[in-house]
Amino acid sequence: MKVDSYNKLNSHYKKIYPDYLNKITRILNKYHKKQYNTDYWEPIVGLYLRRFIAKYLFQKKTKKKNLDKIASYKNVNLNKNYNDFADGDETYFYKLKNLNSSDYFKIDKINFFLRVMNTLRTIVPNILIKLGITKIFFQESYFKKNLRNFFSLRSFFNLISLPKLDCENYRIDKKKIFQNRLDLIDRYEINNKKDFFLRNVIISMPINYIENYNIIFNEVKKIYVSDAIYVDGNEVKFDFIKFYIAELILRKKKILIGQHALRTGLEDFNVYFDYSKSISNFYLTWGWKNNDKKNIKFYSTRIFSSLKKYKKINLIKKDKSNICFVLCGFLNMEENICDNFIENHKAEKARIHLLEYINKVKGIKITLKPRQGSFIIKKKNNFYKKFKILRDDVRMYDVFGNYDVIIFERISLGIAECVYLNQPVIFYYPKNLYKQKNKKLNELLSSLKKANIYFDDKKQIMNLLNSKNDISKWWMNEKNVKNRNNFLNKFARTFKYNNFNEFKKLI
Fold first, then answer.
1. In whole angstroms, what is the distance from residue 473 CA to residue 383 CA?
2. Cβ of 74: how many Cβ atoms within 10 Å?
3. Bridge-based pairing state of the strands 269-270 and 336-337
4. How far apart are CA 461 and CA 320, in angstroms?
5. Which of residues 407 and 83 earns the better pLDDT score?
6. Which of 148, 243, 442, 502 has the most CB atoms around its CB within 10 Å?
7. Within 10 A of 237 (CB to CB), how many other CB atoms are there?
8. Is the pTM of this model over 0.85?
9. Nearest residue to 355 via CA among 367, 345, 363, 372
């Protein structure tokens, strides 16, 4: 697909989103007998709606076929939560048949024990809030235990972790849900011809936003509202967090969301970033800044948290024979239209060419590291059988220091982690595939290029690997070291304990 086509898709997505958010707000208010505005409903349904629109537009643009499928409730995707929807391979758009049987999600109804446990989890935080000691919650997923404890102790428990409540354990009749959605469509006169798209938004909407809304709403109400909350950009996909943020917005409290991945916020199109920016007061970047007042220069707590126990790698080995090639996979285009302005099969073709190229070098051993659940190891492709393949559940952290060179095929946090740990790393993305014109993303690539990490020509990589010079001469070159540090300072600043006061001032 041409760059202009993606620009048009992005423009269309941003144009229609506010209109459909308003429509869904009116429908959900009527259904749940509420009078909330879009500011409340956007944290709950906004990410789902953005992703749904992008999926629809992208499929319509690329597949060039009628998306209007005849379907019964049996093959309609009924999603329990946002993650169920996001993990689905396809979004289906339906003309609906009659119902003829019943089916259930295989989970238990939320029971007395779970309700008691939820109450217990809120006791201490609620007491601390009521006493005026705790005023700020942070979502703890990417704060390791030592950092969470440090935050709490250093702030005299002014900052503590948001208690996690179990709100999604229930048994529900799939047939009844489906019938409820049809009744809802009829009730609000969402005519097939008039608004086919909206009808399908309602049909596919996660159960947590309609049938299970009151359960989560009531459980979240058990937690007293804090003055502010900090959430990692990846955690906004969890519905419980969405509901709590909505409560904070109702009460005009402060929402801060932190950058999650190396490239997040640097692309023209990313549903997670667009959503995070829209529902937050401030977006904390890993070091970069642009003209948007919401963007605040901060640090990567992910690098601090994940790498605290790792020591900087000493380059004892002198050869370049032991290579780990990280199979990052390729992004869902409907989620993230950034460094992938091409079909996935073209990107895979480029990967295979590079591996073939490197494999010809005498003495080089290549190990493949797939992403968890990667299609690569499931594929019956004899090409990949030439190489040793690590299990997909092997963590990236277990790879650091065990290979002379690590090669990435996509902009990844792992690149910054390698640089921080002094692990020699290469990022490869062919020049003929990259068509991004975004200024900030180009600055990131330029920074990696100056550091002699980013290569867009496989011949450059081959020249490096075939060089008679040892690995330390390339990696420890004074100019390369300086440029690597510049890259970290601008795009992946590492959080340190003495940065706590900066964090405290922001929230």
1. 33
2. 13
3. antiparallel
4. 11
5. 407
6. 243
7. 18
8. yes
9. 367
